[in-house]
């Protein structure tokens, strides 16, 4: 399998992206997802196809994200042509596409999608990227890019119950921690994902507590 074809495609698709969903985010997700898989499955090092599937979905996942992609369906069609050229079978293409189309937090607010095993690791890695130091940096980058205020005590966090509410409600960056980021630890699929998410969530909670202490001086 020629993952370099996938990498080249993702670099072109995400060129100029400045909200925390850039190529390097996809690269980190691809690497972290495969690392988690190999940690949980130490006898699977010879399964190069599974690792390639995981890494490919990790690289591709944000190329069809509605937050940054004007026409996700068009990009899906491009991916359908790309993956067989890169050496993936029909079933592998199906698994990769299902994963990247159904793994996002917003897609799973109203209905929980059961992903293939490869997709569970990619989903965990993507959510772990929203935690810890990296998650803090990405949260403020995204909030600033979309004109969100850092914090406003008059705007209370909401319980998210639908995709549309998640996309359209008034949000502050600090509220985003309470509305989404602090919940991700409990949504992890894999043993490796749960351990890393717990560590990063503790770090993030300490940051938010320090922020609130400084705000209330």
In short:
The chain is mainly α. Helices cover 61% and strands 0% of the residues. The chain is built from ten helices and no strands.
Structure characterization notes:
The chain is mainly alpha-helical and 217 residues long. The chain is 61% helix and 0% strand. It is built from 10 helices and no strands. α2 crosses α6 (117-128), α3 (48-60) packs across α6 (117-128) and α6 (117-128) packs parallel to α10. The longest helix has 25 residues, at 191-215. The chain is globular, with a radius of gyration of 18 Å. 36% of the residues are buried.
SSE layout:
Layout: H1 3-13, H2 23-40, H3 48-60, H4 72-85, H5 90-102, H6 117-128, H7 132-145, H8 163-168, H9 173-179, H10 191-215
